[in-house]
Amino acid sequence: MDAGVLNLDTLLLVQICVTLLTTALLVASACYTQSPPEQRWWAVGNVAVSVGMTLGNFDSVPVFINSALSYGVIAFGLALVLRGLRVYCASSLSWTSIAIITAIAVLVAAYYSLGEPSLRARLCFSGFYFALLNWICAAAVARHGSWRVSGIAVAGFTLLGLALFLRGLHMVVDADPADDASSLVIGLSALVVPLAQVCIAFGLIQMVMWRYAERLRRLSTLDALTAALNRAGLEVQGKRMFLRAQRAQRSIAVIMIDVDNFKVINDSYGHPVGDEVLRHLARVVKVELRPHDVLARFGGEEFVLVLDGVDLASAVRVAERVRARIEQEAVSLDKLTVNYTASMGVVCSDQHDYDLIRLISAGDAAMYEAKRAGRNRVAAG
Ligand SMILES: Nc1nc2c(ncn2[C@@H]2O[C@H](COP(=O)(O)OP(=O)(O)OP(=O)(O)O)[C@@H](O)[C@H]2O)c(=O)[nH]1
């Protein structure tokens, strides 16, 4: 296939249009008021790459501008994209590193355009250098998180790097750098580059959307006041825990916790203090939790604690520890100090089978037993 069939000028135009479109896509999504910082780096980085590519395609401007300056701006843009990726991966890229990445591009391109002019050397360098930067971007994302989330972006950066690398390699091997139009490799890479750019833009937006959806999903299962699970979260995680425990024939215990005379606390000190009591209770219980245990706010001032692989006697000991800590620790808010207590009902799958709903209602009954017996105590059911 002759590269002329691919019409190099048209492909170049397509490449610039796609760069502008993907830039617009990234800028538009970054304009959303709560856009994460990485998205803004990607948008600014893409703008810089677009500007650099446009500068590089002006034949009428001095050679320093269409080589050194345009290469510098493209490298700067890629470094900003890399910074965004590092921010996404909870890390960063210093301004010194960004300056070094940019300076290398400017200096080498300036050397081959002003010092020792060589179009071939300049094109080789740009192919290899930009390929390397894209592969560093691919590696930064690939190391972090799952392929389902970042696979498209990694593929895009890898593909773009490969197209640029082949372009550079082609210049080393046999091309006449002044005669791009006759080269199949150049034509094909001009076709692959916009494809990879679209891949990268969609991949980056997908990464952010996925994280956003994850955050919403997590928030929808959490109680906003105490950060314990809410009932929806308990249903999902509790069921999973029960299935795991049943399969492994492990006992599972449920502790129902209810603040004593909470209405009196609210009425005497006000709702903000009542809220602080609930937050305090959740904090105290969380200290006792192992990573796979679950705490949920069941309603008002009632909490459920599900302990995996724990028998009734051990669960009673945990409940007793939590009860004692609650009794000892005072809650302070706005110069007010309040002491409160809680009653607890403890039940275990050994006595009541592997059924979350049944265990919760049996635990509730045991907890009311504790209330009837005088509150501030633990009752086993
Ligand atoms: N501050 C605050 N109060 C809440 C919240 N949810 C429910 N309540 C209050 O919790 C109180 C529960 O009162 P009751 O059901 O009578 O229970 P109690 O006073 O703790 O009495 P016993 O359980 O018998 O010890 C009610 O006054 C509700 O308004 C909340 O999120 N914050």
Number of helices: 13
The distinct ligands, each listed once, are: guanosine-5'-triphosphate
Query: Main β-sheet: number of strands, strand sense, barrel status?
Result: 5 strands, mixed
Order of helices and strands: HHHHHHHHEHHEEHEEEHHE
How many separate structural domains? Answer: 2
Overall shape: elongated
CATH topology-level name of the largest domain: Rhopdopsin 7-helix transmembrane proteins
Separation, N- and C-terminal Cα atoms: 81 Å
Taking pLDDT < 50 over at least 5 consecutive residues as the criterion, the unreliable ranges are none
The CATH architecture category of the largest domain equals Up-down Bundle
Mean pLDDT: 88
**E-strand count:** 7
Identify the CATH class of the largest domain: Mainly Alpha
Radius of gyration over alpha carbons?
31 Å
The class by helix and strand makeup works out as alpha+beta
Strand order of the largest sheet: 2-3-1-6-7
Residues in helices, as a percent range: 55-70%
Strand content: 5-15%
